[in-house]
Amino acid sequence: MAVGIPSEWACTLSGKPQCFGTQFDVDENGWPTPFPIDDSAKVNERRAYLDLDSLDKRQEQLIEPERKCRASIEKTR
Questions:
Q1: What domain range is 28 assigned to?
Q2: What long-range pairs does 23-30 form, CB within 8 A, spacing at least 24?
Q3: What is the C-alpha separation between 40 and 22, in angstroms, rounded?
C-alpha cells in the first residue's frame, strides 16, 4: 500500500480534504465521486508520484462496474 493512502482515509473520516484522491463516496445519483481534494489542480502530479492512475481514469474504473450493473437491471425491467 502506498504511504499516502492511510492518511487519505484519516483525512476523509475527519472531514479534511485528501491529497491523492484515493477515497471515493457516491453522489446524489449513486455514481462514484472523490471526497474533497486539497489543491485538486495538482492531484494527478501527486498521484503519478505514487504510481497511481490519473484521477479521471480511476473514477472511470469505479464507474464502469456501476454502469454495467445498471444496464443489467434495465434489461430485467
A1: 4-75
A2: 24/59, 24/62, 30/66
A3: 12
**1: pLDDT strictly greater than 70:** no
Q: Which DSSP symbol is given to 41?
A: G
Mention every residue, 6+ apart, whose C-beta is less than 8 A from residue 42. Answer: none
Report the Cα–Cα distance between both ends of the chain, in Å, rounded: 41
Structural domains in the chain (count): 1
pTM of the model: 0.83
CA distance 43 to 37: 8
In 3D space, the residue among 50, 57, 51, 55 whose CA is nearest the CA of residue 7 turns out to be 50
pLDDT tens, position by position, 20-64: 999 999 999 999 999 999 999 999 999 999 999 999 999 999 999
